[in-house]
Structures are given as C-alpha cells and as structure tokens.
Peptidase S10
Amino acid sequence: MIKPFLLCKHTRRLQNRAALAFATALCLSAAPVYAAPSTPPTTTTHPEAPKAATTPFTGAAALLPDDAVTHHTDTFSGHKLTYTARAGTLVLRDDAGKPTARMFYVAYTQDGADPAKRPVSYFFNGGPGGATAYLHLGAAGPTALTFPAGNPTDGANARLGINPDSWLPDTDMVFIDAPGTGWSTPTDPKTADKTFYGVKQDARAFAKTIQLWADTNGRLTSPRYLVGESYGGIRAIEVAESLARQQNLMVNGIIMISPALDMGLLDTGNSILASALTLPSFEAAKLAMQHKLAPETAAHQLDEAYHYALGPYLSTLANTPPTGDAARDFYEEVATHTGLPQDVITKERGQPQPMAHDVRSRDGRLYTLYDATVSIADPFPEGVDNGDSPDPTLSGFGRAYGSAFESYAAKTLNYRTDLSYELLSMKVNAAWDFRGDGEPMAHQIPILRRLLALNPTLRIFIANGYYDLACPFASARWVAEHIPVGRNRIGLHTYPGGHMLYTRPDSRAALARDVKAFLAP
C-alpha cells in the first residue's frame, strides 16, 4: 500500500477516504510485532559498520548514521545474482547551501553490470505521508514480507524471506522515503511544511534526490524509470516534470501501481464521474466472492462493468434523479451490479461511498477500502460514524511493513538508528498542500499529456488490482482513453487483488513478469 494514500485537507470527505486508503483510517493501531524468519535469508553479507554522522546535524537528523554498505549473493528465479546494497541518506540544501533534509534511501546495484545499459528504477510510495517500505518489502525488493496463507489480515505472523519475484534481475533499484516519512528527516521541523509538504515542493525534493544519487554513483547516463504507488502516481508525474525542468533529466518510463492520477477522479462525494469509475471495482469484488470471476472471462466481465458504469449508470446520475418505480428499478440494478444491499444503495441514492461504514460492513464483517474482498470481524456491527471505523489494511495488517523494515534494515542492511521508522505519517498528510503553481488544486493529467508529447519515447506502465476502491482500475482506463498523444505508449494491466495487489503471491509474480517485459530493451 501502500501504501498510504490521498488525504485532502481541503475536503473532509476526501480526507476520510484518503485516510482509509493506502495508499492511506485516521484511527491507527500500534504496529504489530515483527516475527523474524526461522532461518535467515540466503544472503552473504560483508557489512561495513555504520558510523556517526560526519555532518554537524542537530535534532532527529543527527540520529541517522552514515551509509551502510553490504554485499549479497541471492538466487532469483533460478539465477544467481551478486549485488551491493547501500542504505543511507542524501543531503538536500537550500539556495544558501544550508541543509534542509536528510533523504533516506536504499539502493541495490548489480555487481559488474554496464552502467550505460543497466536501468535504474527509483521508487516511492504515496499517502501523502507513506514511506516506501510497502513497495520495498511488498513488491520489488530482494526481500519480501509474506502474510500467512489463508489469513491475509494476520500482520502479526507475517514473515520476511527471499522475494522470488524481485525486480533486481532486470533493474537496479533505489527506494526513497519522502521527507517526514520513513527515515527521511527534515533538518528544521518548523519549516518542513512549507519546504516539503506539497505537490510541487515534494516533486522538486525527489527530483534533486534522484539527481544527487545518479551523479554520486555515476549513473546519469543509465536508463531511468520512476515507480510510484497510490499518491505515488501523482508524484511520479510531477517528479518526471521536475526532473526535466530543474535537473535536465528525461525519464525512459514511468511505472504506476494502483495510482491516483487526479484528485477529482477519486472524489465520489462530489463527482458522479468518480462514482461511476468506482462501480466496476465493486462489481469485480462481487463476482470474485461469488466465484464467478474466472481468469479466462475476467477481461470481458470487467469491460462490461466499465461500459455499464460509464453508460447507463453515469447517464442516470447525470440526469434528473429518478423517482418512484424508476428509482426503485435503478437502485435494484445498482445493487445487482455491486452486490451491496439495496437499502444501502437507496440510502446513498445510487452512489455508494466506498469509505462509508454501512457500505463496508456486511454480515458482521468489515471490508477494507483497499481490497473489497478482504475483511475482518466488524468491531462495530451495530453501526458507527465513518471516522471511527478502522480500515483493516491501514490500521491492521499493513502496519506490519514498518516493524519488518526496521528489523530488515538492522539485520540485513546493517543500518541502525534510534529513530522509529515512520511508515505512515498523518502529520505529513494533514499538512499537505495540494495547490499547484497559481492553482487552487494541482492537476496532473495535463502534465502527463505534455510529458508524452515532449518525450516521444516515454512509456507508461499502469498496474491495478480488480478490487481496489481507493484508486479504482477504471480511473486509469478512463485517463488513458482520453490522452490524445502517446496513448499507444500507455500499457494498462489488471490483476486479482486490491490496492496492494502484490500481497497476493500470484499477482506479485504476474506483476514482476509484466514489468520485466516493460523494462526489456
């Protein structure tokens, strides 16, 4: 998830939804205890001990050690790979040269590879306020966190082990935490909001961090890719533009996993288009739970759901609201498509709000916004205000990524600090400035259109889970269908699963195979 996800402080409804999304429930539980594997991963390491920081930082920034370098040999898909891992920080500075942040990253580079041909992929999660441990330990890193088979919500018993679906055979990887998340630490907390916590400021910080890493490691000429999850979709578009404008670096490709592409497309409380784009995910989840979504028919079923949502459903919402028998027929039809109780559909006037408790709570089970097929026992089956209803992903099993990463960093990467790893920062989220340059709200679709036109070889890879209600797959399809230039360079991929589709081993493996093909020259 996970990512975290989109919390818009300007719109309370979006704020509730984002807090419930990966990508982001304001009600956060304590992180589950990380359970170490019974045997360590098959990794050979020769650690260089971390030392005290040599730059005279103060406060929390002073608690971060110098870089730690370890050397590894692991086997992925039957092929042995020798690589180097570096966990550390890069220093961002203001125009006067004063440090403004220590940006934490973990880089994995294949030993002996030709840097001119070997791609580098730069990863970040979303939120805003989410650290990169989700993608790192969930999807692409050499080590993965796996949840118990048959009980995907059991974060307390999640285990780390070699990731058979790591992207490392195909690309070097640099995982970067946003300022205020993970171990990326602003040097002056009083000015961090203004300096980093906004759409444009954030993009500039990431672009400079990427330039610094590439320059320091002699990788300015390597093929470069951006990988973002959830709000990381918006972030990836903004960072690609900032890299070109401020750092003179063009990207070869962008990989987006369960991306938010525009805030307006997620605001189901105020946009009938957003409601329509969410409906196919409701329908996919219903079909899956009825065992009617077969691999050989899924594409056709999802296509039919998409056209119903953008056709009869959207036109009914846009027209004069039906009354009497017409209203009952419409609500019955929506209930049939979504699998939700008709009385709930009627109360919501045909626009079920994904974050609402009465939408997520059914038969004593509480479903997560991030995967509409995954649920826990509802702690409030009698009903409760939405803000008091915990999300099973954000407040539950998803928290396991934080404690797991702290253990992994100390034991495998030899990176140790007294600072807690900030997996999901509500402080950063609440402070986020969604404005653009002179705009009340930044919009990324026009930027994406410009990027595709200005860079005629830029390719886009978008991955979505069928059951994701936070960033539904239909929104990516709708955006792609309305791109006038470069539509043929946008690949859409859907998988069984939700926002964090990689928590399902089969979908993680399928994602890795598709990414491998995308990265191939």
Observations:
- The CA atoms of residues 207 and 243 lie 5 Å apart.
- The chain has a mean pLDDT of 90.
